[in-house]
Amino acid sequence: MPPETHEGLPPPTIVSAPALTELFDALHARGYTIVGPTARDGAIMLAELSSAAELPYGWGVETEAGRYRLRARGDPAAFGHSAGPQSWKDVLHPPRAKLWEADRTPDGGVVVTEAVERHRYALLGVRPCDIAAIRILDRVLTGGRHVDSRYAGRRDGNFVIAVECTEPGATCFCTSMGTGPHADAGFDLAMTELVDGGDHRFLVRAGTLAGAEVLSALPGRPADDATVSYAAGAVAQAATMMGRSMPGEGLPDLLAASRESPHWDDVASRCLTCGNCTMVCPTCFCSTTEDVTDLTGDHSERWRRSDSCFDLDFSYLHGGSVRTSGQSRYRQWITHKLGTWHEQFGSSGCVGCGRCIAWCPTGIDITQEVAALSALQVAASPPEEAP
Q1: CA distance 91 to 47
Q2: Which of 112, 238, 240, 303 has a Cα-to-Cα distance from 106 of 20 to 30 A?
Q3: Could you give the 3-state DSSP secondary structure of residue 52?
Q4: Same-domain status, 23 and 138
Q5: C-alpha distances in Å from residue 111, one per residue of 150, 163, 178
Q6: Between vectors from CA 282 to CA 279 and to CA 287, what angle results, nearest 5°?
């Protein structure tokens, strides 16, 4: 399912910005539906794109806890923005999808039709943190005994075009999570956008044979050592510019030891339990089902829609909900995301994209909450005896 890497791939190539038109042509000629970023509704959104002209040239973003704003850049960069409210989860595991429909036949029988989707998507502008998130969704939704056929239908055959980050947002912390800003795997093509001195270009690397084939269709020239070094330096510099950080080790133990921490009451006093954090998170995958029927009862449909552990009914069992307080629901979310996810899926459920921070209406910052829990644990620990 993820792109397979191969030896013998071509060296990096310098491609001019106008050549993005040829990239679209090459992908369309191979039957791909291109999904990428565009400026719409006051944000950088993901949409099916018909041409390179729809990319958000000249737009950047300003982010902070509880804040996200588009801003005009001083250059024509197409990918000069950090994570928006949507992730690639919205494409591969959409918030609402039909599972099946059933119709009553004139003779009284029932015909059930399963809604199996097959798409050939080219994902354009995937950030390294989101590549990591897609890898997590692959593990969750296709890595076990029960494969999610809808996800697999949208994921199989993807052509992934990564864009490395040179300007992280204020809420980004992918470096501390080991997920960026450099793209090292999981892509067919990886691009580093360079805009300086009026020269708008991309350093493009192929990660698969499919990527090498598309790259060969683009006008470009072999990258010189100076450009390769310049691009690598810009990405390395971005790694030092993260606005937040998360401890690299010990989070599962910290969350397990903090189950009865008084800090959860403080979080609950600010949390609206709206579920925004789970909706924008690129790895939250929970869903529920709903059935609808027409007024005659002759046609019915079953739909899957996104669900959230912040929903009061999410933990409903016979007799009532298990987690009735906002305190317990936030604790459940962060403990699973950073702690028990390791036990369940072998990695953290957080990739450091910072979306949950920017899109929380009250500005709750997951990195600050972890820091507060850590400080309380240290304060409660007995002092070490002097030797």
Answers
A1: 9
A2: 303
A3: helix
A4: yes
A5: 20, 46, 49
A6: 50
